[in-house]
Amino acid sequence: MKKSAILPYLFVVMLNTSCAQNSDKGINLPESIDFTTHLVIQDIQNPWGMAFLPNGEILVTEKSGKLFHYKDGNTTQISNIPNIYVRGQGGFLDIELHPNYEENGWIYFSYASSEGNGKGGNTAISRAKLSGNQLTDHQLLYKAEPNTTKGQHFGSRLEFDREGYLYFSVGDRGNRDVNPQSIRRDGGKIYRIHDDGSIPKDNPFADKSGAKTAIFSYGHRNPQGLTLHPNTGKLWEHEHGPRGGDEINLVQKGKNYGWPVITYGINYSGTKITDETSRPGMEQPVYQWTPSIGPSGMAFVSSDKYPKWSGNLLVGSLAFQYLERLVIENNKVVYREKLLDGMGRVRNVRQAPDGFIYVGIEGKGIYRLNPK
Predict the structure, then answer these.
(1) pLDDT of residue 19
(2) How far is CA 371 from CA 51, 225, 303, 327, 342, in A?
(3) Residue 47 to residues 50, 54, 83, 222, 338: CA-CA distances in angstroms?
């Protein structure tokens, strides 16, 4: 996913202890394993996104440009998907159902698309309906600009809030010094739209001339986790840092999260990006990982099937190939635990409507965690 996932960490980063909570306390191994793993859907190389249909059916996106439908123990490939631009970290990305899916049938996708002017591609958001083994009624809702042949930092996760707004993330597309800090450019942002793609009138920059009016927050690097807190309904996000400085953020309307003006990470070469880890008017992360874990996928646990994990946050690690469980109290991480250690690069984690937790692991497929 990124160089920090494969480079050895032969360095020490000194952190400003008065700012963001950091990962100095380390991660724990569980005292006991209270679940078993069951491989539900196998042989998927990169299970980027998953959504849960009624009656236990599952839709899974494969980054290389495929959509799979799991039903009654069988997996079928769905046809008539959007045109996918597959390059680097780009491809078929996340998938999410409309909150009223059983009434309207809308399914939402994020993916890399070459639509529009210029060579290359950028992140797109669309919706469609499932009819048999194909998609119908495709509608493009948002397409980030400009296209670029760079292969990094497409984002992108999708999440509906309790009011029916759709949030999505787009990474900085490898143009860190231009995109994230400009509200007139796509990239390095969290966006908010209505379910039909229209722009909410109370978006923070809806009345700013020249602004990308779908922007909800900015100053992000490459967000690959979005989830709602089960109690507060607030939107949480995590994003890849460079070499160090992966972040968990509580997303707030109109706020600037600092990248690359402030960061706890450094360049992959070992040189500094900036001397600043904080600045007035820029938000501090709830938590930051150094060294980078390569976070992907994110879910709060609210199910009674895992009583010891109630309210905990689950995050996949690409770099170190485990599932991380974080205990959070008053928006502070008080405990970290390593699960599924060594099973593979964890691409996604979701809690299904039936209360079970499902984990997507690269090269293997989708696992369900069965409580003992």
Answers:
(1) 55
(2) 21, 24, 11, 19, 20
(3) 8, 20, 18, 18, 21
How far apart, in whole angstroms, are the C-alpha atoms of residue 110 and residue 92?
A: 7
Assigned token pair, 138: 């495709």
Nearest 10 degrees: Cα torsion 206, 234, 250, 107: -70
Output the pLDDT for position 353. 96
Reported as a single tens digit per residue, the pLDDT across 178-197 is 999 999 999 999 999 999 99
Flag the least confident range among 9-13, 105-109, 211-215: 9-13
CB 42, CB 74: distance < 8 Å? no
Q: Residue 333's closest CA among 218, 260, 249, 244? A: 249
What length does the chain have?
Answer: 372
Active-site annotation, residues: 153
Helix (H), strand (E) counts: the chain:
1, 24
Give the residues across from 122 on adjacent strands. Answer: 113
Using alpha carbons, list the distances in angstroms from residue 72 to 22, 49, 54: 44, 20, 12
CB atoms within 10 A of CB 253: 12
Give the pTM: 0.93
Q: Give the 3-state secondary structure of residue 130.
A: strand
pLDDT-based confidence at residue 359 (cuts at 50, 70, 90): very high
pLDDT at site 23: 52
Q: Give the three-state DSSP class for 149.
A: coil
Q: Name the H helices within 52-167.
A: 101-104
Query: Can you give the pLDDT at residue 6?
Result: 35
Q: Which two tokens stand for residue 77?
A: 């490939």
